[in-house]
Amino acid sequence: MARLIVYYAHPGHKHSQANRAMAREARRVEGITFVDLYADYPRFDIDVDVEQQRLLDHDVVLFQFPVFWYSTPSLLKEWQDLVLEHGFAYGAGGDRLAGKTLMLAVTGAGPEEAYTEHGYQHHPLRAFLVPLQQTACLCEMRFTAPYVLYAALRAPSEGRVAPHVTGYRRLLEAIRDDRYDFDAAAGREVIEHDALPLREAN
């Protein structure tokens, strides 16, 4: 079994529908670690020693967050700035995360067609996640295609939250049980609930 930790970061958690439902379901998955960063660190007083040990104790690190202004919520960025220290995550002697996997579960307010050259975002969603991909690369971690919900603000009225949450649970369980095909996922731009690259259970 893979040791999976989910870091959830949403400053507007109580107003969220999609991310709140995803986080609630993730908490119910046995055998994984779930961390709500805004609940644990409301004053941004991140315990670096605790967080570094959490990273050492897990094989797969998954960040769940809504894309805010083409980036992560501010606390997740602060977490990266403090926890991924030189000498620990990168640089001379900084190979403690080498071989681990970084994955994202993100929601975007815009529809899928907005994240194209001719859409109003002008770039694919993955383009806005390149800093995290490069962070993984610098830390010698594997970066894989993100689990994505487009048009997240419309998703509740369109009945798309429930299947996305069900898919999220299947994703987390598959990672935990070593049934998630990271090699197949590497060839995709994004992963959606109805097309999870899973391997058959042994």
Number of domains: 1
Number of helices: 8
* Assigned CATH architecture: 3-Layer(aba) Sandwich
Silhouette? globular
State the helical fraction: 25-40%
**Largest sheet, described in full?**
6 strands, parallel
**CATH topology (level 3) name:** Rossmann fold
| CATH homologous superfamily placement | Flavodoxin domain
The value of Rg in angstroms is 16 Å
Distance between the ends: 12 Å
Structural class label: alpha/beta
**pLDDT under 50 segments (min length 5)?**
none
Commentary on this structure:
Helix content is 33%, strand content 14%. The protein has 202 residues and is of the alpha/beta class. It has one domain: Rossmann fold (3-Layer(aba) Sandwich). Strands 1, 2, 3, 4, 5 and 6 form a 6-stranded parallel beta sheet that branches. Helix 1 runs parallel beside helix 7. It starts with a strand and ends in a 16-residue tail after the last helix. The model has no long low-confidence stretch (mean pLDDT 95).
